[in-house]
Amino acid sequence: MAIDPSISGGSAIDRWDELHRTLSAQERRMIIYSLMEAPQSERVPLPEAATAPGTSCDAEQMRIRLEHNHLPQMATAGYIRWERDPFCVQRGPRFKEAEAMFETIHDSIDQFPQSLITGCEIYEEMYRDGNR
């Protein structure tokens, strides 16, 4: 079901459930993080925006996973808009919901147990940035 950005769309509980589902996959977290790092109206290229730094992947396999799973889920939630040609993503009408979660994590990353940071590129970077 597609969202109508002009309405609030579902209860707060539904929005939280959607946010947690979206953030449950590393590729989707990387897309949100990549968009946060880019200027607000900028499109970011895929699959690069979905790939964690220092990791390698088969670009064609990643494209298939993104097109058939990750991007439709994120677009339906309203967090992103995406295009096939050129293959890119930009902020959607509800991007702020996901961005708020990342900002909260960033602001309190030093309070997280190390077991939730080590091995997760996004959170390791936030931890390094916050502890300089």
UniProtKB/TrEMBL annotation:
Domain DUF7344: 21-85
Name of the featured protein: DUF7344 domain-containing protein
Superkingdom classification of source: Archaea
Pfam families: DUF7344
Protein's organism: Natrarchaeobaculum aegyptiacum
